[in-house]
Amino acid sequence: MARTGGxxxxxxxxxxxYTFSCFRTPSTDEAAGPSATNGSAVxxxxxxxxxxxxxxxxxxxxxxxxxxxxxxxxxxxxxxxLPKAIFEQFRRVANLYFLLTAILxxxxxxxxxxxxxxxxxxxxxxLSMIKEALEDWRRFMQDMKxxxxxxxxxxxxxxxxxxHWEDLCVGDVVRVEKDQFFPADLLLLSSSYxxxxxxxxxxxxxxxxxxxxxRSLEVTLPLEEDDLFKDFRGVIRCEDPNPSLYxxxxxxxxxxxxxxLDPFQILLRDSKLRNTSFIYGVVIFTGHDSKxxxxxxxxxxxxxxxxxxxxxxxxxxFTVLVxxxxxSSIGFAVRIKLDLPRWWYLQPQNSNKLDDPSxxxxxxxxxxxxxxxxxxxxxxxxxxxxxxxVKVAQAHFINQDLHMFxxxxxxxxxxxxxxxxxxxxxxHTILSxxxxxxxxxxxxxxxxxxxxxxxxxxxxxxxxxxxKQMASGAADHDIxxxxxxxxxxxxIQLVEGVTFSVGKTQKSSIxxxxxxxxxxxxxxxxxxxxxxxxxLFFRILALCHTAIPEVNEATGALTYEAESPDEGAxxxxxxxxxxxxxxxxxxxxxxxxxxxxxxxxEREFKILNLLEFNSKRKRMTVILKDEDNRIxxxxxxxxxxxxxxxxxxxxxxxxxxxxxxxxxxxxxxRTLALSYxxxxxxxxxxxxxxxxxxxxxxxxxxxxxxxxxxxxxxKELILVGATAVEDKLQTGVPQCIDRLAQAGLKIWVLxxxxxxxxxxxxxxxxxxxxxMKRISLSTTAGDQVAQDAQKAAKESLMLQIxxxxxxxKLEKDPDAAFAxxxxxxxxxxxxxxxxxxxxxxxxxxxxxxxxxRVSPRQKALVTRLVKEGLGKTTLAIGDGANDVGMxxxxxxxxxxxxxxxxxxxxxxxxxxxxxxxxxxxxxVHGHWCYKRIAQMICYFFYKxxxxxxxxxxxxxxxxxxxxxxxxxxxMLLFNVVLTSLPVIxxxxxxxxxxxxxxxxxxxxxxxxxxxxxxxxxxxxxxxxQSVPGDRHLIWPQLELPCSPASSGLSTFxxxxx
Length: 1057
Prior knowledge:
CATH architecture of the domain at 441-471 and 510-726: 3-Layer(aba) Sandwich
CATH class of the domain at 441-471 and 510-726: Alpha Beta
Oligomer: single chain
Number of helices: 30
Helix content: 25-40%
CATH topology of the domain at 441-471 and 510-726: Calcium-transporting ATPase, cytoplasmic domain N
Strand order of the largest sheet: 14-35-34-33-15-29-32-31-30
Structural class: alpha+beta
CATH superfamily of the domain at 441-471 and 510-726: Calcium-transporting ATPase, cytoplasmic domain N
């Protein structure tokens, strides 16, 4: 297995990618020496793991013995299956009751033979246990398939051999080949590329399909061949196992030096090596210590409301059972005391304690046990298992529904759990994300503002859709919707004070670029008054990013592997404007400028530092050196963040840019502000030294130190302009929302967009309608600066909520509709304990609610408030990792399998490909599943109550003697065989209306009242008992009328004795 040749010196374009120099320590500083650990967290609580590289034998005994790499996701094993499965079955109240009666059937007090009580219980419990065993067996086989994968491991003396994953130990050195999965969490030592980088696909971890770049420490780059590991030794001291996928704190002690480790050197289990021939790595975390297994916690347990109500009904029936058993035992005691002495043919003098006339109270107590067993058929023994069968069948129908098949992605709807099928028909409130859920999350560069001048003449889809909605709803103007598209001069006022022109649009032939303005295209920007600022704007688009250029070998065209759709759209726009980003190396970015005085020119910009974008910073910065040796800082980010960091002399274009940003937001576009700053050599050198010190620190406060240092340089910026990209609505979203609203569902949209953008998105997707009265809740920018300001802002918000509630109460028009819009800062106050109920009371009076600028945590808090405050079924739908908290918090979580990976889908109860499929999922399948389950449960209780009451009536007729009117075998087969198929058929196939009628009328759920069924059972059982005829005939026929709600099954016949 030894590799004879040196490392393959791959010099492909892939190996020349910039490896995020803000995290790479230069070789002169990388080896900090043992003193680097002074004051670090390594070795302290939470950072106590020690790994001896290439010496795994030390980890097979205490105190360094760590778990093996064997994993198990099963619920049971050979030893625990029977006790745990039996415990799970008898946690159910009904099963526990029947277990007690089965035990009592072995005593003389039982009116039936033991087999008639034990056999049905054994059948039902056994069937459920077999189902559990099959599901767990499938999990076991999947685990075995993973555990038996093979990987090349260093055996010693520079030789590698294959070993099963489950046999890996901490400290082993492994070699992973291209397109293989990593068997454990590894420290990357080297790769087939000379600069020690590799490309990783993390779809199994976070659902993201874009490749992640990893790179090794420079000190381990020479470990390029198998035989070089013969004498390799090192010690890793790092954090203890934890579920954080994106952080890692530790250091490597190698050759008497200490080197800081960060997440860019860590390869996580179940991610895949891509576009790299091989890598060498050392095992840090194995098995259940690995980060992916640390994250494999079970989703929150969710039970449907109908199941909870069913448990309550079981308790009520048990109370009825005890009541009639008491009546029967009292009647038996009275008859024993008064009548038995006169019944000489029963030889009362030889009576035992079960029917002793001298001790009627004791006999009555024994008869109470007999009655509890005799009337036990009031409680249906096969109810739970039948419901499980029906729900699995219903989930299969959802999965196979071709009307929810997305041809573009090839994905179908998936019921990831069958426990909540009927909950789909009881949804009261929908809480939805916007980007990627209502929209496509595919960005098109549409407009921009440069040096205070707005460019781009095309109208956005949101402008056109909102104009169409308003035009169609304007009763005081004779405007046809078609006229909006025919007349280029039409102007529609979408938001007060802002007017948009709506004209004909043409389909863009360039993906990601829908810009149209001759002032900037084809090099015409050189004729603009502020051409130098325009040049800087385009360079920021082409340089300020982390994307990877890829060449299509067939066409030679460039495509970009970007971290976000926005970033990809910026690069496409820069290319179309004549600034093509075409190459990246470890230290430089190359762009090709087409429109220069000397013709097309290639320029190189050396990258010094890169400060990444994240949801907290809301900005990204790159520091580079141009061809004139000037150090320039380029920054792009949210307008509020950038404007706060502008220099006094950098605000020249701020008023005009702010106005343009508001217009773009009102058009439903996503905006970013662009800025720059020229740095002096001395200033940069001083800052870079502090930055290097912060990034090489080890401890939980490392990120805080990096953020603090970044703030020192990201200031005194000069505003250049702003971008506006369009995220188009998904097909059918307005129609879907409109029909869901007609069906009586309340819809909330939780978005990170500014208020103006959210309002116009609301109009475009029919969430807001013409004539709807808006209530806006907001605070000023300085509300959270000082304690007094926060108090004033809170009082102002309470006043706004009070005024809004008063406006709703004073509204005299019964058909008036209100919409509530609240921004993120106001929402922070509104979710506090002393105000959240006021906010919720106002929100539930409104037909639509839009929450703007919300964080992922606020999404989850709003969902919890609605769920707990209303006490009704809530549904949350989203497509990204920031929606996971909201999805798990709601009663029902729906994930969109979209552009942002599969994290939302993995956390959801149901998954769909497009928002428009939600209509069919709720209105059709929700209606059917709820109707079927509700009728099935009522059907179950109907037949069992009717059957049980006939036994009670016969008891009264037979002197409460404890004798059954039916044969033992009929009693045995009644629930599990004779009456199971009609009930299951009803639960699976019942269809009161077709799907077309459901979709056409927005069909709501009809209530199914158990008490009506209970009354019907009482009447039916009395009719049966009073039917004239010879009661001693063998197998007379009994016909029970079925519930009025059951369709297609008008009657069912029972054979009785």
